[in-house]
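Q: I have 251 residues here and want to know how they pack in 3D. Can you give me a structure?
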Amino acid sequence: MHPRVNILGVRVSAVNMEQALETVFGWVDRRESRYVCVTPAHVIMDCHWNPDLRSLFNDSGLTVPDGMSIVWLLKAKGFRNVGRVYGADLMLEVCRRSADRKPRHFFYGGETGVAEELAGRLRARFPDLRVAGTCTPPFRPMNELEDLGVVERINASKADIVWVGISSPKQEQWMAGHLGKLTAPVLIGVGAAFDFLSGRKRQAPRWMQRAGMEWLFRLGTEPRRLWRRYAQYPLFAALVFAQWVGIKKYK
């Protein structure tokens, strides 16, 4: 178990990439059913407005610091070894280290064709990667029969790790709702990583990521879709300050 830090009521795991990898592979080896949430600042704000969503993040096996602002807050709290666990990098590192352990990977999410393109690119990059299957869910809510079919398909694939890329909060709701229904022990919600690693969308340069400016790059590439998300950042900063000085408390 890793320590967690309360950021606006969300219990964020004080981990770095190496610790996250060790934890994920430990769950696979022990067949422990867990899910992983990646957590940038805008997701913390989503949880701030939605207590039910906050509970899903707090019930996860890991709620990792995906954004640099979260990393800086954890370091300020005294966790000096914390590092960014970015969803796309987490997927790459898990796939890279799968050569020795041979877990089976299932890719669930993305627009039509994205999961297949993602699996193909990852297999080209890591020839020993074992791809159990892919599935692109409809954008509309699935009925009970359709959902049962997805569960049966994933279970039949004998997957060990299910990568979920259907954006937040849908992916967290899906993972929490399917924990125990799926025989795969580990579910990891990585959102836009499907688009980035399949080549559908460009990632911010590394220097922008390290400087905490990735949000600015993404806003420039998709302003209509993302402006509401990033418009919350000043409020996020104000709420964090209020929590820090004790004006506002979060259970």
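Q: Anything worth noting?
A: The two ends are 20 Å apart (CA to CA). Residues 151 and 181 are 7 Å apart (CA to CA).
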